[in-house]
């Protein structure tokens, strides 16, 4: 009987497609009382959900700035190289992995390469961190949206209670009269009314109840978008994923029709070939690909797991990657046409009005719309777009996290209202932690979270591990055969080459450059992060990355021991299956490195 069981396991290892399908059916049939895991009702739901996840604020406020900063059109050279070598191959890897196993980020890696299951835990920890701080941006946008319905935009003049004597309206007529300490009404609205920003990172202060209420409202919306699982998420994305494109089109048409728009677009794309020799340009291109494509966060794996087994995820990968990069490129025209108009109105150079991140969304663009006719209309359009772009990224990430946990504990969570209760607890904990970021010192905490918790270093390390796990340990050829079993044909051979060589080489090189040029984080208003803030930041980084080696050590120490223990109960089939894969992983790794 033992020999027969060993033969069956051996056949499973030789035929991973059959084994995976058998294990999946067996796992689903264990308890018929469990709630159905669910599937997308149509391909459109899958495409819109993934589009909503990967197309977010980074496309609108980060890519255009990086393009301008790093040589204009020349920036597209390293960007396209990283897209082909890292972005598309890893995007296909994660999506196909979820579809093949029908499991979320943790369960998929446990099944296909148990020694590297820490990849799943690390990605879920990064999702949890992002859920804490990313939604704070939406609370700020909601605050601005509510303020946009006033008869006169509050950031367009200096007659508000929060304005100081140094407040001056920046326009062409009074630029020469500005003193050295003058500030603009839009900056005072952002720092004094919205944030009530403290002068030091050491002074958090009390919670801003208005921002806290905005944060609570956004969390409530996210909860009800996700609480019924894929059934509710699949319907909500029809609105949240398409509405931003409508607003982007409106803003693009309005922007290119403004005086000075051509100057802004030329400034956006003007090539500077000397910038290609700067390592920082290549690092910016790589990190932009990883951030904007949602790689190594486990969300692509979770969304792919809701697909039917024979869905053509290969073609979907190309469609979604093309849509994502095209959106980033087109958003640059919408943003820089408006910045060109603002520079002409103020009589200054475009470089003086260009900002990145929150500065673009909450300072530069609000100032621009205040100079347009019907400023309330354009302000509402812009902040609705920001809300929708961020909202679907937030709740799709939340869906990926909840599904990964429910795959680990299906008998506990997929009964009665277990999922809804778990979702409520996650939302509540993230909301309470997020309250730190709606205090006077909250912007500093937000920037520390943003820089370290889902940092480029973390994403690059996880990308290397993913490539090694699939390309070498599980075998790129075997994974290509798995994809062929689903879609009927194999991917191009370039994907196997990337998984084995090109992707890990590019990621390791970029990671090395990031360490060589590392410098202390500079926070808002030029404040340098103190030592304790840097330590806290690296702790956030290690909280996710460290799970990979910890899980590998745990697996190597515990699973073999249970097999060798004298007098112990017979090991379950899944323990033998994991143990064989661990031994196989060690053998293959030793061949690679020794």
From TrEMBL:
- Extract the CDD domains matched here: SLC6sbd-TauT-like
Bilayer topology reads: Multi-pass membrane protein
Looking up InterPro entries in the UniProt record yields:
Na/ntran_symport, SNS_sf
As one GO molecular function, the record gives: metal ion binding
Disulfide-bond pairs as recorded = 158-167
Q: Name one Pfam family in it.
A: SNF
Task: State the source organism's domain of life.
Answer: Eukaryota
> Where does it live in the cell?
Membrane
Cellular component GO terms, alphabetical: cell projection; plasma membrane
Q: Which family does it belong to?
A: Belongs to the sodium:neurotransmitter symporter (SNF) (TC 2.A.22) family.
Query: What PANTHER family does this protein's entry cite?
Result: SODIUM/CHLORIDE DEPENDENT TRANSPORTER (PTHR11616), SOLUTE CARRIER FAMILY 6 MEMBER 22, TANDEM DUPLICATE 2 ISOFORM X2-RELATED (PTHR11616:SF249)
What is the protein's name according to its record?
A: Transporter
Q: Which organism is it from?
A: Sinocyclocheilus grahami
Its gene is: LOC107557246
């Amino acid at each position: 009987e033992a020999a027969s069981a060993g033969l069956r396991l051996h056949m499973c290892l030789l035929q991973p497609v059959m084994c995976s399908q058998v294990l999946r059916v067996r796992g689903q049939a264990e308890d018929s009382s469990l709630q159905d895991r669910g599937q997308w009702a149509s391909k459109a739901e899958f495409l819109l959900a993934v589009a909503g996840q990967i197309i977010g604020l980074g496309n609108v406020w980060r890519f255009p700035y990086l393009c301008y900063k790093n040589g204009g059109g020349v920036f597209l050279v390293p960007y396209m190289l990283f897209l082909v070598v890292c972005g598309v191959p890893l995007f296909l890897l994660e999506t196909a992995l979820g579809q093949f196993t029908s499991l979320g980020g943790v369960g998929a890696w446990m099944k296909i390469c148990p020694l590297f299951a820490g990849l799943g835990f690390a990605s879920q920890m990064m999702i949890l961190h992002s859920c804490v701080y990313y939604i704070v941006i939406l609370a700020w946008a909601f605050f601005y949206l509510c303020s946009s319905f006033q008869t006169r935009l509050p950031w367009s003049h200096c007659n508000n209670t929060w304005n100081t004597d140094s407040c001056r309206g920046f326009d062409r007529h009074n630029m020469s009269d500005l003193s050295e300490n003058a500030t603009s009404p839009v900056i005072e609205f952002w720092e004094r009314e919205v944030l009530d920003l403290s002068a030091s990172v050491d002074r958090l202060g009390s919670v801003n109840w208005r921002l806290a209420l905005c944060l609570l409202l956004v969390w409530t919306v996210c909860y009800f978008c996700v609480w019924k699982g894929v059934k509710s998420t699949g319907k909500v994305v029809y609105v949240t994923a398409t509405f931003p494109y409508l607003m982007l089109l409106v803003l693009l048409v309005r922007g290119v029709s403004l005086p000075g728009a051509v100057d802004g677009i030329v400034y956006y794309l003007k090539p500077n070939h000397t910038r290609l020799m700067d390592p920082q340009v290549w690092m910016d291109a790589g990190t932009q690909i990883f951030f904007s494509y949602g790689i190594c966060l486990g969300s692509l794996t979770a969304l792919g797991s809701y697909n039917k087994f024979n869905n053509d995820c290969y073609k979907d990968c190309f469609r979604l990657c093309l849509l994502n990069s095209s959106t980033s490129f087109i958003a640059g025209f919408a943003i820089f046409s408006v910045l060109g108009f603002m520079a002409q109105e103020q009589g200054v150079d475009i470089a003086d009005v260009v900002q990145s991140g929150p500065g673009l969304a909450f300072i530069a663009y609000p100032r621009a719309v205040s100079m347009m006719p019907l400023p309330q209309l354009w302000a509402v359009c812009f902040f609705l777009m920001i809300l929708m772009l961020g909202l679907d990224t937030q709740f799709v990430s939340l869906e990926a996290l909840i599904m990964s946990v429910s795959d680990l504990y299906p008998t506990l969570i997929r009964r009665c209202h277990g999922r809804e209760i778990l979702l409520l607890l996650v939302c509540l904990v993230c909301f309470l932690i997020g309250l730190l970021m709606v205090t006077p010192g909250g912007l500093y905490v937000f920037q520390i979270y943003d820089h370290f918790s889902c940092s480029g270093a973390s994403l690059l390390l996880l990308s290397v591990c993913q490539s090694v796990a699939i390309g070498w340990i599980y075998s790129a050829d075997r994974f290509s055969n798995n994809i062929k079993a689903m879609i009927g044909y194999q991917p191009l051979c370039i994907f196997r080459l990337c998984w084995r060589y090109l992707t890990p080489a590019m990621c390791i090189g970029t990671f090395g450059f990031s360490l060589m040029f590392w410098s202390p984080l500079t926070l808002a208003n030029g404040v340098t992060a103190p030592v304790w803030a840097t330590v806290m930041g690296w702790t956030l980084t290690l909280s996710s990355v460290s799970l990979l080696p910890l899980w590998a050590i745990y697996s190597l120490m515990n699973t073999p021991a249970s097999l060798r223990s004298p007098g112990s109960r017979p090991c379950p089939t899944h323990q033998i299956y994991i143990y064989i894969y661990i031994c196989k992983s060690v053998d293959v790794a030793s061949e690679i490195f020794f």
